Amino acid sequence: MKFVPFALGALFLATPCLAESEATFEKIKIDAGAALYDAECRRCHASDTAHDSYGPPLENVIGRGAGTYPDYDYSIALEASGIVWTPAALRAWMEDNSGFMPGTKMRHVGIEDRTVQDFILAYLASISDRDPSKISE
Ligand code: HEC
Hints:
One of its GO terms (molecular function) is electron transfer activity. Residues 1-19 form the signal peptide. Keywords: Electron transport, Heme, Iron, Metal-binding, Signal, Transport. Residues 28-128 form the Cytochrome c domain. This is Cytochrome c. The chain contains 4 helices and no strands. With 137 residues, it is an all-alpha fold. It has a single domain, classed as Cytochrome Bc1 Complex, Chain D, domain 2 (Orthogonal Bundle). The radius of gyration is 19 Å and the shape is elongated. The protein binds heme C (HEC). Heme C is lined by residues 40-41, 43-45, 54-56, 58, 61, 66-67, 69, 74-75, 77-78, 85, 90, 93-94, 104-107, 109, 111, 120.
């Protein structure tokens, strides 16, 4: 039974490290997502509502009803869709927005790589108040 205290001690020592590396991974994902957002989305989407934007601003888009940003002139297809921007809906949108929603006026994007989607989602979550894990995956 000598090993038990040792094992417990090791567990306590390991825990802060784990939490630390998770925080590091999360930060790397957000940074990568920000760079991808700059390359693929920012020319049309401001990330904060204080800036003019050709497309609707994506601040707080996680968990938002589609087509509900006030004063934005959406296509009828998007405004009438009744969907909520869950992480799963955002993946489908990034993968093939015009296939997912025929009639949208957003130019086609085709981001099929799940890792790239993960990074962009991490960035979108970082500019949203709602926690995506409490919405759905
Ligand atoms: C060429 C410009 C352009 C690019 C690039 C672009 N979008 Fe869009 N996006 C739009 C427009 C315009 C709309 C409004 C579509 C409509 O009303 O049908 C839109 C709508 C959206 C919506 C719906 C928001 C809401 O309020 O319901 C999301 C989510 C979105 N885009 C995400 C993205 C992401 C993520 C990227 C980058 C991977 C991206 N878009 C790239 C122009 C663009």
